[in-house]
Write a structure and sequence with these properties.
The structure holds three protein chains of three kinds. By secondary structure, chain A is of the alpha+beta class. Chain B contains five helices and five strands; from the N terminus they run E-E-H-E-E-E-H-H-H-H. Chain B is 25% helix and 12% strand. Chain B is α+β, with helices and mostly antiparallel strands. The radius of gyration of chain B is 23 Å and the shape is globular. Among the domains of chain B are: 52-127, Ubiquitin-like (UB roll) (Roll), CATH 3.10.20.30; 136-204, Orthogonal Bundle (DNA polymerase, domain 1), CATH 1.10.150. Chain C is α+β, with helices and mostly antiparallel strands. Among the domains of chain C are: 55-115 and 158-215, Uridine Diphospho-n-acetylenolpyruvylglucosamine Reductase, domain 3, CATH 3.30.465.10; 222-325, Enolase-like, domain 1. Chain C is built from twelve helices and twelve strands. Chain C has helices at residues 13-20, 34-39, 76-81, 83-88, 90-98, 102-107, 110-115, 121-124, 163-169, 271-277, 284-294, 306-325, and strands spanning 6-8, 25-28, 47-50, 60-62, 68-71, 173-178, 181-186, 209-215, 222-229, 240-249, 252-261, 268-269. In chain C, helix 2 links the parallel strand 2 and strand 3. Chain C is globular and about 55 Å long. The chains are: A alpha+beta, B alpha+beta, C alpha+beta. At the B-C interface, strand 4 of B face helix 2, strand 3 and helix 6 of C.
Chain lengths: 769, 209, 326
């Protein structure tokens, strides 16, 4: 319900939060050598994932459960004039209907500093798909039939979905206050204009990126159940705590009365970090009927109503001296928020990816009659990389410097956005060097041009992720008499392997096998606070807390053993699930400790310590792509790829590689196929299916794929040495592909995606653009 | 022949004309809005079109069921038989998460009416494992990390099963082609294809199943 | 959610045809297109008449003259993998293999592929477009990048089938049956241009079904190909496609048929381009000449002028394929 913070510079403030009460400077130093951490450990929940036995929100069925279906505006902009539920009310199986007129459903929505901008069912519909009513019925078909039988009369209003047009003064207004909810924000350092005047080379161009839709395989949805005034919700979410906070606020409940769980969830990519209306609707219908209510969106609803990566228009001007050092960057970024305010652009890469003394970034977000944008895997960054990294490519050509070399000349060692604080580690240079070596960059670039109509090209792009995570998490570890360990954490495993990495960290610290660790997670009723699994923070925020909790357990069990075995505790250590006594060959398994059996459990609490105050820990990446462009048909295929990542310690090469594969695949979609298409005059979605909104398939992924880990052995970032991975794995991908296309056909493809239409149209223009 | 009710949305056509026109309103009748009906007052379920009795053979078991003609195989598997392994990702034949085998051939269960699946041998993901012991193919997906969030995984595994039943030593291209009807938004295709190749190799060297 | 309907699965063709004669009845074959259309409310149905118990509508039979009789319920997978189709009717097997996804090819039938409804997003979406009885073709002033450059009129949709142009390149005939009798028509006569009737894509009447597709023997020295240009590597409708079937005598082209997909409301034959090939050696310059000719006369809409270039590309690629395969 809140504006998504992850887009905003304010999000960086989260990094400087103190730890939770009880957290202090983590005394644990990073491991020197590890045996379990860093190993290719298959997922501890793999059997459920491959067996079809993993229970997702979509799979939950409760006794007496009803099904909720939402009625949505078919118009992009309209006023509800009348709702007639008479026919629907009489239909079989119908238990409750709520509409814009129901007092139970008058819940403020889209809370901003200036107050609520809307409500749960708002008669003023500002995009196609906005909620106007909902039905609960015995079966899903009954609820769907009844929803269709609700007659809603609308007064249609002029709609605007073109964000360039929406920014003009005479455009139809999405809200009465206009389509520019806040003035453009300008961030600058140095003297940009003066620097351009002295530069040896300057490039300037305007780039456009398309609106992308998250389309996780599991659509958004919830099951709500009331029990003596307490609300329990199963939600397909990345962050149970954010959903709990939103529900308590929306339904005016004490936080302690709301429980949100998300055992397995089928993908989110940022679109499931916040409370959705469907969850509140399920709760309201459940309260009205006294029955559990399940409300899961259809694919068609998910394409319209639960977020997107906004389209951006980015004009970027970059200057360098003859030596290739960047002198100035001037960037203007405009994006489409949708019908409610959300930061739709991020100029962070312009500010911080390279060392540059003079930078000016202007960011503005425009309201249109479309679904609201949400965080989407590195919000704003792939768009900014698309523009900046193509500009750097063009600048390199102009200066006659190899694009890898040019980037190497400008690698930063301090965070210019954070008052020049040094990085705990900067693997960017190594990413560029090792990636280039693995790709055989120099030879690939100088290969003779193809004489056939299929042209090959190679490209490079760099990236970084500017969010260091919210350093607040609590983990409880419990060791049982049989030597098995329970780790309790509120973090969601959104498919990245979080649970497995937690188990590895716990196993490493306590010297036990991974299969002795059980993870209990993502349930606000039973597990401990963790921030949402987004922003590439899950591992780096939570694993130090896991380690700290297990270290406390270890300390306690060593104390128990010392008393029982009558040894000095300093002579004891743990290995292979047993106590090791210095100077003795015998070991004492945990399960053989009488004192542990008597204690029943040994509990350790771990808190995430605050980030270091004198260093900044952020991840970096450099990607290399080779493409084939068919100049007859405009088809582009990515045929070879190398992704070099500095994400700190590689906790698990298997899941690490998988994250990189996923990031690159998403980048291929951004670069080549994904594009939300709206019908301008009506403001309605044209690309309303997975046929028309095209995400990559197994045929679109390059199997000549290599990832290179650049582990800078970061001892300062946190006690496990891990930095973020999910977002930096996708940030440079599309730009690397665009640069490769340019290398292949000599045309600068400014607009994403690079469709066959775009390629043949570019080729039809004479010469280089 | 039943009298189809006119779709109420049909009365609200989206038009490029008619902006700023007000649809005529009549008195709102919303007395029941927002009020839950007492359970006893709920009208008895009625059925215009009638349910039909069918027999489905799923994973070697026969099930007698009453279904609506419009019920898709996926909803009957999931909601009537409790076999929630097949996942509804789109319910429009565009993602493959609901893939099952019909007489050994891969098929989207969301695009298959339950009434049309009679007399066919239906195999779902639940039919691959022996109790708690997953098949060698499933084991390969675990070993190669052939998934991320896991929601598409049952469909991916069934697509692979369909392939390996007809082609015991597929090339990489054959694997990619066979898996090309199953979307993975997490983008684990690289690992998915490796999993299938590994499973094929294991079967050749006399692995289980 | 699907709307309600009744369902029958007759066990004889005559029963099926009788059921189909009732108003509101629709044919259900593979269902891959119909169920989507019903979900999208692009079509309505009171009763689905399933053909799936009619074994006589399945299978590929070689005819004495070297032709084929293909039952309308034959799946796209069967067509794509059938050795005779692959060896002698290359355009058809290539087109079948290029359609949809493996699962959809396992389910979708040849008859259904010919009778599928348009993929235009306005037709499938919640827009009361002309083809659904409304008064507007939304694509004309809207998002028409995927729409027609030939043959558009009241409606500018493109025919979505891959197999239809391939069959037309093979000079196929289609047999239609109903309780009233049967008729056999050339495949070019199956499809209806919007100028004639923009609410239907084929001449198949509501009580009629496609029962067989008849292929004459291929021309002497036949080679064929189907080149489909699409945005992603698979599971995508043609932006532009080209089916070609040539009869070659040594190096010289004796007979040529080129039919395009993705460019018109019907499969679009480019006879002038064919004429440029006949009697000539299939050389690179000759291919370019024919490919260029294929796009002549195109009348692009606001956002699809690029299709003119893709037509050249698709035809050049298809002809190069057959030249290479020779």
């Amino acid at each position: 319900m809140r504006e998504s913070r992850i887009y905003t510079p304010e999000a960086i403030e989260d990094e400087s939060l103190p730890g939770l009460p009880g957290a202090n400077d983590d005394p644990l130093k990073p491991w020197d050598k590890t045996t379990v951490v860093g190993a290719r450990v298959p997922r501890i929940d793999g059997q459920d994932r491959v067996g079809g036995t993993a229970v997702y929100t979509r799979d939950i069925s409760l006794p007496g459960m009803l099904h909720g279906v939402i009625v949505r505006s078919p118009h992009a902009h309209a006023m509800v004039k009348r709702i007639d539920v008479t026919a629907a009310r009489a239909m079989p199986g119908v238990h409750a209907i709520v509409t814009t007129e129901s007092p139970e459903a008058k819940i403020p929505w889209t809370l901003t500093a200036r107050g609520a901008m809307s409500q749960l069912f708002d008669p003023h519909c500002r995009y196609e798909g906005e909620e106007v009513a909902a039905v609960a019925a015995e079966t899903l078909p009954q609820a769907a039939d009844a929803a269709r039988a609700i007659v809603v009369e609308y007064e249609t209003l002029p709609a605007i979905v073109d964000y360039a047009a929406a920014a003009k003064p005479d455009a139809p207004k999405v809200h009465a206050a206009g389509n520019l909810p806040s003035p453009p924000r300008t961030t600058q350092r140095g003297n940009v204009d003066a620097a351009f005047a002295t530069a040896a080379a300057v490039v300037e161009r305007t780039y456009h990126t398309s609106c992308e839709l998250h389309t996780p395989l599991e659509t958004h949805g919830s099951v709500a159940q009331w029990d003596s005034g307490d609300l329990k919700v199963w939600d397909s979410t990345q962050g149970v705590y954010a959903v709990r906070a939103g529900l308590a606020q929306a339904l005016k409940l004490p936080i302690s009365s709301v429980r949100v769980a998300s055992p397995y969830m089928g993908g989110g990519f940022g679109s499931k970090l916040e409370l959705g209306k469907y969850t509140v609707i399920a709760a309201v219908l459940a309260r009205l009927t006294g029955r559990a209510v399940k409300c899961v969106l259809t694919r068609e609803e998910s394409l319209r109503c639960v977020g997107n990566r906004p389209a951006n228009t980015i004009t970027v001007k970059v200057a360098a001296g003859k030596d290739g050092r960047l002198l100035a960057i001037d960037a203007d970024l405009v994006g489409a928020s949708g019908a409610y305010p959300t930061g739709a652009v991020s100029g962070y890469l312009m500010l911080d990816l390279y060392t540059c003394p003079n930078v000016r970034v202007r960011e503005s977000s425009v309201l249109i009659n479309a679904g609201q944008a949400r965080a989407f895997r590195a919000p704003g960054y792939p768009q900014a990389a698309w523009a900046l990294e193509q500009a750097i490519d063009e600048l390199a050509a102009k200066l006659g410097i190899d694009p890898v070399e040019l980037r190497l000349k400008n690698v930063p060692t301090v965070s210019q956005s954070r008052n020049g604080l040094p990085y705990s580690s900067t693997g960017l240079a190594d990413c560029l060097r090792k990636g280039a070596e693995s790709f055989d960059w120099s030879a690939s670039r100088t290969r003779a041009a193809s004489k056939s109509h299929i042209k090959r090209g190679v490209g490079v792009a760099a990236g970084m992720w500017g969010y260091g995570g919210e350093p607040r998490a609590t983990v409880i570890a419990k060791l049982y008499p049989d030597g098995s360990l329970n780790i309790n954490s509120g973090a969601a495993d959104i498919g990245t392997g979080t649970k497995t990495v937690f188990a590895q960290v716990a196993a490493e610290e306590l010297g036990i096998a991974v299969d002795r660790v059980h993870i209990e997670h993502a349930d606000t009723g039973t597990t401990q606070y963790a921030p949402g699994s987004g922003g590439s923070q899950t591992v780096l925020v939570n694993t130090p807390a896991v380690r700290s909790a297990v270290a406390a357990v270890k300390q306690s069990v060593l104390a128990l053993a010392a008393a029982e075995l009558k040894k000095d505790v300093n002579t004891l250590s743990v290995r292979d699930g047993a106590i090791v006594i210095a100077g003795e060959t015998r070991t004492v398994p945990f399960a053989a400790l009488r004192s542990l059996a008597q204690a029943q459990q040994v509990v350790g609490v771990g808190q995430r310590a605050p980030h270091p105050t004198d260093k900044v820990a952020l991840p970096f990446a450099a990607h290399f792509a080779e493409v084939e462009v068919n100049t007859r048909t405009g088809e582009v295929r990515v045929v070879r790829y190398v992704a070099a990542q500095d994400s700190g310690r590689v906790m698990n090469p298997l899941t690490f590689e998988n994250q990189v594969l996923g990031g690159v695949t998403m980048g291929i979609g951004f670069a080549l196929t994904e594009q939300r298409i709206m019908d301008g005059p009506t403001g309605k979605l044209a690309s309303g299916s997975w046929h028309d909104y095209k995400i990559p398939t197994a045929m679109d992924f390059p199997f000549a794929f290599t990832w290179v880990s650049v582990d800078p052995q970061d001892k300062d970032c946190n006690s496990t040495g891990a930095k973020g991975l999910g977002e930096p794995a996708t940030i440079p991908a599309a730009a690397a592909i665009a640069n490769a296309v340019h290398d292949a056909i000599g045309r600068r493809m400014t607009d994403a995606p690079i469709t066959p239409a775009a390629v043949v149209s570019a080729l039809a223009t004479t010469g280089r653009r | 022949m039943t009298d189809r009710k006119k779709d109420p949305r049909d009365q609200q056509p989206v038009s490029r004309r008619g902006f700023l026109t007000t649809v005529s309103t009549s008195a709102a009748a919303a007395a029941v809005v927002g009020v839950a009906a007492p359970a006893a007052a709920a009208p008895a379920p009625r059925d215009d079109t009638g349910t039909v009795a069918i027999v489905l053979r799923v994973n070697g078991r026969r099930h007698r069921l009453l279904v609506e003609p419009r019920d898709r195989l996926i909803s009957v598997l999931r909601e009537r038989l409790g076999l929630t392994g097949a996942k509804p990702g789109c319910e429009r034949g565009e993602c493959g998460a609901c893939t099952v085998l019909l007489d050994g051939v891969t098929r989207y269960s969301c695009m298959t009416l339950a009434v049309e699946a009679q007399e066919r041998e239906i195999t779902t993901i639940e039919g691959l494992a022996q109790g708690e012991e997953v098949s060698a193919l499933q084991q390969a997906f675990i070993a190669e990390d052939g998934y991320q969030c896991g929601f598409c995984t049952p469909g991916q595994v069934m697509a692979a099963e369909g392939l390996l039943r007809t082609n015991t030593s597929p090339t990489v291209d054959a694997v990619r082609a066979a898996m090309s009807g199953n979307l993975c938004r997490c983008g684990a295709y690289g690992h998915i294809v490796k999993s299938v190749q590994q499973a094929a190799a294991a079967r050749k060297t006399g692995g289980a199943k | 959610m699907l709307p309600r309907f009744t369902h029958v699965q007759p066990t004889s063709i005559s029963d099926a045809l009788r059921e189909l004669a009732a108003p509101g009845a629709r044919v259900l074959a593979g269902g891959t297109d119909l169920l989507g259309c019903l979900r999208d409310r692009a079509v309505t149905a009171d009763k689905l008449v399933s053909l799936n118990a009619l074994a006589e509508l399945r299978g590929i039979r070689e005819q004495g003259d070297g032709g084929l009789r293909i039952g309308a319920l034959t799946t796209l997978t069967e067509l794509a993998t059938h050795p005779v189709v692959r060896a002698r009717f290359g355009a058809l097997s290539a087109a079948a293999a290029a359609a949809a996804s493996p699962q959809l090819r396992n389910q979708g039938t040849l008859g259904g592929n010919l009778c599928q409804r348009p993929r235009c997003w306005y037709f499938r979406g919640d827009f009361p477009c002309a083809r659904k009885g409304g008064d507007t073709c939304f694509a004309k002033e809207g998002e028409n990048q995927l729409h027609a450059v030939f043959g558009g009129d009241v409606c500018v949709m493109v025919h979505p089938s891959d197999t239809a142009p391939a069959l037309q390149s093979l000079d196929a005939k289609v047999r239609l049956i109903s309780a009233r009798g049967s008729r056999t028509i050339g495949i070019d006569a199956l499809f209806v241009l919007p100028a004639k009737d923009h609410t239907r894509e084929t001449v198949v009447e509501a009580d009629e079904i496609v029962s067989d597709i008849l292929l004459p023997p291929p021309p002497a020295g036949a080679v064929g190909a189907y080149r489909k240009i699409r945005a992603r590597g698979v599971w995508d409708f043609a932006i532009v496609g080209a089916a070609v079937t040539l009869g070659l005598d040594k190096k010289s082209v004796r007979q040529a048929r080129i039919v395009l997909s993705g460019v018109a409301p019907v499969p679009w034959r480019v006879a002038e381009a064919e004429r440029l090939l006949v009697g000539h050696e299939l050389s690179a310059p000759r291919i370019e000449q024919a490919a260029t000719q294929a796009s002549s006369g195109a009348a692009p809409l606001s956002a699809n002028a690029y299709k003119v270039m893709l037509i050249r590309g698709a035809v050049a690629e298809a002809l190069s394929d057959v030249m290479g395969a020779r």
